[in-house]
Write a structure and sequence with these properties.
Blueprint: E1 3-13, E2 22-33, E3 38-42, H1 49-57, E4 64-69, E5 72-73, E6 84-87, H2 99-108, H3 118-131, H4 147-159, E7 165-169, H5 177-194, E8 197-202, H6 205-211, E9 214-219, E10 222-227, H7 229-234, H8 239-244, E11 251-258, E12 261-264, E13 267-271, E14 278-284, E15 289-291, E16 297-307, E17 310-316, E18 325-330, E19 337-338, E20 341-346, E21 351-355, E22 361-362
Parallel strand pairs: 3-8, 3-9, 6-7, 7-8
Antiparallel strand pairs: 1-2, 1-4, 4-5, 9-10, 11-12, 11-14, 12-13, 14-21, 15-20, 16-17, 16-20, 17-18, 19-20, 21-22
The structure holds adenosine-5'-triphosphate.
Adenosine-5'-triphosphate (ATP) binds near residues 15, 45, 46 and 47.
C-alpha cells in the first residue's frame, strides 16, 4: 500500500505559554512512500517525526493537507478504520495477560463483518507469533521476558490485524546495544516477509541507514532530503544532512574557493571546477583522506587509534569546526607523518562544499567530467 502525503502541515499552539506563538511541527510534507518498502523517518529530537506518524495513523488531525493510502483519502478517517498497526518505544503489553492473550487482544474487539471465531483468532495469533519467532513463549507473562522478546510481542500484536501499514515509533530505544542490533535486523526480516509498507521513526542515523529502503531526513518540521540511504550519504543536499549521517561524523572546515580551487586556511586542497570565488563550508568524510607524503591537506597529528581493519587518524587544524578531525584509513596504510604534521590527499567525491551562510550544497565538476 503506497502512502501519499500531500502538502501535509501540522501547527500546534506553542506549549510555552509565556512565549506564545505556534510551532510548525510538520511543514508542507509532500512525498510518496512506495508500496512494500521500509522508510526511516530520521532527525533530531523535536523535528516532527512522532507528529508525522500520528498524522498518518490518525491520532492527530492535520492543520492542512491530505493523506492517501493507495487511492483512498484517509485524511478524515478515524484511526481504527485506517488499517494501521502501531508499535511504540514502550511495549505497552498487558502485564496480567500471557503472550498469546496479548497478541489476541486486538482481535477480540473486532465487530460486525470483521468478527472472527476463536479458531480463526488462534490461527492468526500463531501465525503472527511464528513470524516474530516467539511461538515457543506463548504462555509467558511479559515480566518473564527480555525487552527484545517483549518488543516482538508488541510487533506481533500490531501484525495480527493484518494492517495495511505498519508504524514503528522508536521501537528499539528501550533495548540494550546488542538487542538493538538484533531486533533491527528482525524488523527488516519481518517487513520483507510480510511486504507491509512500514514507517520506522528513529533519531539514530545508523539504525535508519542500516535497514531502510529510503530515508526521510527532517529538521524543524521541514524535509531536508529523501532517498535511498547510500545515495543521501554520498550526495547530501545540505550541510545539515552531511553532518547528520555518518559515524564518525563528517569533518567540517571554514574554507574558501579562489580561482576554482578549494582552500582550507592557506592550503589549496582540491580543484573545484565551476565554482566562483566565495567563502564556503567544506566537509570531508572520514574515508576521504589518502595518506600521502607531500599531500595537499596538512593537519597536526594528535594520535592514531587502531580499530582492527582500519586506523583512525586523529588530528587538528585551525580551520576545523570539529575539535578533532577523524580520518579513517586502511590499517596497513603508511602514514605520511613528519614530526607533528600529517599529510593527505583527498578523494574528490568525499569532499562536499556548502554555502557558508545557508549551508546549501555547491556542486563542482569531478575530474572525469561528471558534475557532483
Ligand atoms: P522526539 O524525537 O523528541 O520524539 P520528534 O521529532 O518526534 O521528537 P515531535 O514530537 O513530532 O518531534 O514534535 C515536533 C514539534 O512539535 C516539537 O517542537 C514539539 O515541541 C511540538 N509539539 C508536538 N506535540 C505538541 C503538542 N501537542 N502541543 C504543542 N507542541 C507540540
Amino acid at each position: 500500500m503506497k502512502i501519499v502525503l500531500k502538502n501535509l502541515t501540522k501547527i500546534f499552539p506553542s506549549r510555552n505559554k509565556k512565549v506564545g506563538g505556534e510551532v510548525i511541527a510538520v511543514n508542507d510534507f509532500d512525498f510518496e512512500i512506495p508500496d512494500g518498502k521500509l522508510i526511516g523517518l530520521l532527525g533530531p529530537s523535536g523535528c516532527g517525526k512522532s507528529t508525522t506518524l500520528n498524522l498518518i495513523c490518525g491520532l492527530e488531525p492535520p492543520t492542512s493537507g491530505q493523506i492517501f493510502f493507495g487511492e483512498d483519502d484517509v485524511t478524515h478517517l478515524p484511526p481504527e478504520n485506517r488499517g494501521v498497526g502501531l508499535v511504540f518505544q514502550n511495549y505497552a503489553l498487558y502485564p496480567h495477560l500471557t503472550v498469546e492473550e496479548n497478541i489476541m487482544f486486538p482481535l477480540q474487539n473486532l465487530r460486525g463483518k470483521d468478527r472472527l471465531t476463536r479458531e480463526e483468532m488462534q490461527q492468526r495469533v500463531r501465525q503472527a507469533a511464528k513470524l516474530v519467532q516467539i511461538d515457543q513463549l506463548m504462555d509467558r507473562k511479559p515480566s518473564e521476558m527480555s525487552g527484545g522478546q517483549q518488543q516482538r510481542v508488541a510487533i506481533a500484536r500490531a501484525l495480527v490485524k493484518m494492517p495495511r501499514v505498519l508504524l514503528l515509533d522508536e521501537p528499539l530505544s528501550n533495548l540494550d546495544a546488542r538487542l538493538r542490533l538484533q531486533t533491527r535486523e528482525e524488523i527488516r526480516r519481518i517487513q520483507q516477509e510480510t511486504g507491509i509498507t512500514t514507517i520506522f521513526v528513529t533519531h539514530d542515523q545508523d539504525e535508519a541507514m542500516s535497514i531502510s529502503d529510503m530515508i526521510v531526513v527532517m529538521k524543524d518540521g521541514i524535509v531536508q532530503q529523501i532517498g535511498p540511504p547510500q545515495e543521501v550519504y554520498d550526495d547530501p543536499a545540505n550541510l545539515f544532512v552531511a553532518q547528520f549521517l555518518g559515524t564518525p561524523p563528517i569533518n567540517v572546515f571554514n574554507a574558501a574557493v579562489k580561482r576554482e580551487t578549494l582552500y582550507i586556511g592557506d592550503e589549496a586542497v582540491l580543484e573545484v571546477p565551476g565554482v566562483g570565488d566565495r567563502p564556503v563550508s567544506a566537509a570531508i568524510r572520514p574515508e576521504g583522506f589518502i595518506p600521502k607524503a607531500g599531500g595537499r591537506f596538512v593537519s597536526k597529528l594528535e594520535r592514531v587509534e587502531v580499530m582492527g581493519r582500519d586506523t583512525s587518524v586523529v588530528s587538528t587544524h585551525p580551520e576545523s569546526r570539529n575539535t578533532f578531525i577523524r580520518s579513517i584509513v586502511p590499517a596497513n596504510a603508511k602514514l605520511a607523518a613528519s614530526g607533528e604534521r600529517v599529510s593527505f590527499d583527498l578523494y574528490p567525491n568525499k569532499v562536499f562544499i556548502f554555502d557558508a551562510e545557508t549551508g546549501e550544497r555547491i556542486r563542482f565538476k569531478l575530474k572525469d567530467g561528471d558534475a557532483q
